[in-house]
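dude i think i finally got it to work??
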Amino acid sequence: MLKVGDKAPDFQVVDEQGQAISLSGLKGKKVILYFYPKDDTPGCTREACAFRDDLSQFQNKNAIVLGVSKDSARSHQKFKDKYDLTFPLLVDEEGKICSAYGALSEKNMFGKKYWGVDRITFLIDEEGVIEKIWEKVSVSDHAKEILKMITR
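look at this
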């Protein structure tokens, strides 16, 4: 399990438009890496829209927001288009980034067990070190809480 002070696991993936993104390529910026269960579901939509609404404030603090789920690039693009999301959604269909960050757990829906994405957020500093972890995310005020953390 990752903890504050650990070097964040590097990754190289594509976003919904096929653009390559790596954590090491973002050195010099704060990275808000947030994991969410599923595109276009109520809680995930509220969380994404809050990040969208506060994005300019994050950018003013030299921070980038990256969303991660196991959805496809096509699903991500539809989600972005529907809600005018203006930050990258990383494609992690195989769950490699989710696994590296401990954001997968066994779920149970209608008696069927599966591995799903947990709602968890990492604040990674400019050198790639984990500065803060939110394991219990309340979607209604999460973006504002992170903003307060990075404006200290």
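The chain has a mean pLDDT of 93.
im so relieved honestly
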